[in-house]
Amino acid sequence: MNALLHSFYKKIENQNFRLTPQREAVLKVLFQEKDRHLTSYELYNKAKKICPEIGLATVYRTLELLLKLGLISDVKFDKGLTHYELRDTEDDNHHHLICKKCGRQLEIVGAIPEKLLDLIGSETGFQIIDYSCLFHGYCKQCREKTNTADKPMAELGE
Prior knowledge:
Blueprint: H1 3-14, H2 21-32, E1 38-39, H3 40-50, H4 56-68, E2 72-76, E3 82-86, E4 94-99, E5 105-109, H5 114-124, E6 134-137, H6 140-145
Parallel strand pairs: 4-6
Antiparallel strand pairs: 1-3, 2-3, 4-5
Helix pairs in contact: 2-3, 3-4
């Protein structure tokens, strides 16, 4: 069994939650699709193949639990749909770039500079303990297709 998957099982059990076949199915799907961001409905359809008795409400409850335990993260992409992905580590700092033209989703890895986080905290009085960023713009391919590589985004007309 995958060591990281096994560690997720242990984290659930260590918090006094049972590792039910349904929860296990959701986690297995997240691991099988670890390079994708899945909606709850996509997760449900894939988990149903592993555990036919799973219900959509159980998938929602499992996702809530996994979010609470910090094992997954959620992000809203296009059309306001929430997508879910694994958090491989406690400091899994990666961010998403979303193309407004084609919908392409790219990830960038790296922490936001501490100076910026400190500035946000000092100006708002907010203590940041976790964060994720979502950047909207135009990917290189779309900019090249429309000859907009050198134009400011405001001129692209979206």
